[in-house]
User: What shape does this take?
Amino acid sequence: MNAWKLRLSMAGTLAIIFGLSTLIFAVILTVAGIGFDLITIGVLVVVLNIAQWLLAPYLIGAIYKVRELTQNENPQLHQMVDDLSKKSGISKPKLMLSQIPLPNAFAYGSPLTGNRVAVTQGLLKSLDDGEVEAVIGHELGHLKHHDVQAMMVVSFLPALFYYIGYTFMLSGIFGGGQRKSQGNNALIGLGFMAFSWILTLFTLYLSRLREYYADRHSVSVVDNGAEKLSTGLVTIVDESRRAGKPNKQQQKNNSAFKALFIADPNRASTDSAELHATPAANKKELLQETLSKEPTKADRFLEIFSTHPNIIKRLRALQEIS
Assistant: This one.
């Protein structure tokens, strides 16, 4: 997917999300005749999402055992982030270390904390310096493109429609008034909740597009970035599989913030199975074997519900822009 096609796809997806949301919301306000209640719910959902955005860095820090990585601890990594930030045309974010064995990285932040890029202990242990550089380039791409803010704005819309639908459902089931009116409220509620799932699918699609876009940024600021990021992703997927299936609490934590990661840790087993369909002696050979494959119909279907692109499609897209 070339750069212009990627930008057009993102713009089109945003237009669909906001256009459909505005249309449905306006229709329901007109038909239902209880605009004040709906607006109140909308304001509450917006306030809650903004509060979540502002406070999320502190929650992320607690869940993933994140602390600041000082210059003295790893001057080479700090220099790498500084150089890539200059190439990216952004201010250097605060460099953080997530003290977990899972190999991954993520960019996050809010006006209260400023921008941050976190790498995990597992990432520094599993990847070589070039691969780490490419991963950081990807994360800086998210910061340059304001992906944290963009996804926060887009993500509140499905939540808004879900809670409006939930309110109508409760009104239809437990509210007073005529049975016909209660039935109408329940149907409206179901419609809102169904529409929230449709918006969620568009939001997931936008998340996948932004992953591709961040990959392109890494390639643009890192020498031989396509190969470095490709082998880095292969390593992340494989090492995540070796770490074993996360327990229920870890899965819950990963699901809450998996859109932040460079690779979805909950899909590690599935992605690794695709990578290891053919035996390979090393990462580069494994990468070449993978590039010759095509995602199955099942893979393409499962991708619809994922925050990250299918690993085969993602690796092939990197090779196309190398």
Observations:
- The mean pLDDT is 82.
- DSSP finds 13 helices and four strands in the chain.
- Residues 3-320 form one domain.
